[in-house]
Amino acid sequence: MIGSTPNPSRRFTLGARLALEETRTLELKEVKGTGPVGAIANSADEYAVAFLNSEGGTIIWGVRDFDRVVVGVAIPLNQRDRLRVNVFGKLHLIQPEIDPTRFRFDLHAVEGAPPESHLVVVELSVPAGASADPFYTSGHEVYVRVDGLNKRLSGPQLTDWIKQRNGGAAVPSDDVADPKLAGMIKRIRRIFSAHGLEPTHWPRFFRIRKAPFTIALTDIQTDRALLAWLDEDKIAWLAETFLLRRAWIDGESSEIHGRFDFHKQPENFLQTVSQHVDALIWEDTLDLPSAYFIRWGREGEWATIGQHRVFVVVRVPMAKLSDQRYVYKYLSDLQPYPWDQLRTNIQLRAWARLLFVNKSVACFGCDISFEDGNRLFNDDVFLHEAIESRATVRHHIWHPEDHALYPSESVQAKDTDSLPAVIAFLRDHRLPFEETNLGRRNDDQP
Q: What average pLDDT does range 276-288 have in this prediction?
């Protein structure tokens, strides 16, 4: 179980040689270099997939493989939560998804090590996968475990593995045998499901968006049928419409969303938002755009672990399918900006003013757990899922626009002493800065 209490049956003493051998179910690994958190997290899904596709097993970081001597891994206390979050994030990306409670992730103290060394031994235990289909890493690769090492499968080897897993049966005719094409089909389906679109919604969504093509339900029924329907123009349309990276759809990148370079470029921020907001047709969407200023961390986490950092995500409606179901696209550079640093504080407040005053975009203050914020920062979760199910709107506490308005525009205005710096920032970048006739809100009247 992720973050569970260490297994008391495991004890590790610095310099001691373990009575263990690397096998099909055990991997020992020394961690070298200056980035142990990243090194462990980046290899976690490969080993997990290899064990899932075999008999299950355990990987132990902090033990040399050639002589089985305990050397430990230097991970300070303030980095251990980040290690757990990063490893969990990698395991979450394994496809098909697996219940994370089936993994056990432990950090063991290294006996005999000086406290200032921060040495631990890291252990990840993985069950045997029960799926007839192979498990894939976040990079859409398949590994199996053979005699103390991982082996990557592709092409005929992968086909043979699937046949053996299915008792020697041939691959069903409705499936796509090529793993790269099969992975792309899964990602195409994921785009729609991650935005709240069921297969029956696809034809209507294409029609509302005036797509230069149509789709029949029979084209969606099987992966092979969907592959036959797809072509280069349709994939490009999906990437452009949902603002996703084409490299992610092709399986060449783990980053999902298109990147917008907003840092220190407020002109680019306003131009990009305007491009998507000004083109809205009310009859098609029947909803207004909104912006979310998301604190990285809930309650005290924001000030400690999250270090007062804030993400900004703009949500733009694309289609209304029913009174309960809207489809949105999302704009963000996925960068968390420190609210308590003067330069970025001014920039965030300038963005709130541009959105609220000049584009009539409602600004909502939210928070997100540190774990979910880490996934947001790493761009391995769809923004729709992060906004709609993980962020908590807290209207009564956190109104971003209140930090960007004159007192004459709102009696809720805050940080007014430093508002001239925000206005100067806008003026220097030749952006709208004048006081408007916004007026006071009705519920703000004395």
A: 78
